[in-house]
Amino acid sequence: MREINIKLLLPYNWGHIRKIKIYDNKKQLITKIMHGEELTLNIDSDIEEVIIKLDFYKSVIKIPKNEKVYLGLYMDFRDRFPFKYLDTLKRKCLTGRFMTEEEYENFNLSFYAESFRWVPKAGIDKPTVFLGLLLSVAIVALSIIQQHNPYQDIVFFIGASGTISLALLYFEKDKVELYDYRNRMIASGCSFILAGLLASSSLSAGALLVILGFTFILRSIAGVKRLFNSANLTR
User: Fold this and answer.
1) Does domain 2-106 have CATH number 3.30.1330?
2) CB-based burial of residue 127 (10 Å sphere; 0-12 exposed, 13-18 middle, 19+ buried)?
3) C-alpha distances in angstroms, 33 versus 62, 70, 72, 74?
4) Which residues pair with 118 in a beta bridge?
5) pTM > 0.90: yes or no
6) End-to-end alpha-carbon separation of the chain, Å?
7) Residue 15 carries which DSSP code?
8) Do 11 and 112 meet the contact criterion of CB atoms below 8 Å apart?
9) b/e per residue 59-79 (b: at least 16 CB within 10 A)
10) Which UniProt keywords apply (predicted)?
11) Where are the domains of the chain?
């Protein structure tokens, strides 16, 4: 028998409520582990590899021949747009490596270079977020009014998803991850423009949504640039 210590750390909020399965090279389940967990297990000495699996992700990692080994599990991706989304489509994005005891003890979320770029709650552009919430609610109302619009369901979905997404930002208690904040704001602005283009039965309302959508995006970009340059941005 040998002792294996396993720690799983995932970036942002990716997969934090999922259990990662770990198999041996005989395809027998060894254990399941969640983000932030640290497990110590005894395994057979003849196990040569561990297999990490979650949905379509799969990595095979060879085990050193030490009696006591330390395995850190993580997501291997380039943490910048758009590469981080492309890299997460790779099957081996969820992976890991065996470490020394010291490396294992120091293995924490600082491993992800960009994961500690946070926006303090006071740094959020609340007027712009509130404008986005009003636009989202207006889009929901517009979808209900436009009963004969063939894109009614899409318009409703845009409004409802925008309301939920921006409400989560607005009511965040302490801080928000910078890249998540930026992406939500820009994506919301683009969806407002799309909703305006799909509001076919009301030209004036559609034009207004397009204009406000562009305004929302420009304000969001200006706000994010300010946050990048702010001394209050923590890492």
Assistant:
1) no
2) exposed
3) 19, 15, 12, 12
4) 177, 234
5) no
6) 41
7) T
8) yes
9) beeebeeeeebbbbbbbebeb
10) Membrane, Transmembrane, Transmembrane helix
11) 2-106, 126-233
Strands 68-75 and 2-8 turn out to be: parallel
Distance separating alpha carbons of residues 156 and 140, to the nearest angstrom: 5
**SS3 helix, strand, coil % of the chain, rounded to 5?**
45, 25, 30
- Would the CA dihedral through 154, 157, 161, 164 be positive or negative? positive
In what helix (H) or strand (E) does residue 225 lie, and over which residues does it extend?
helix 203-229
**By three-state DSSP, how is residue 184 classified?**
helix
* Structure tokens that stand for 77 in this block: 């991706």
Q: Along the 235 residues of the chain, how does pLDDT read in single tens digits? A: 889 999 999 988 888 989 999 999 888 999 999 999 999 999 888 899 999 999 999 999 999 988 899 999 999 887 766 777 888 899 999 999 999 999 999 998 878 765 456 677 777 888 999 999 999 999 999 888 888 888 889 999 999 999 998 888 877 767 777 777 888 899 999 999 999 888 766 677 788 889 999 999 999 988 888 877 664 444 4
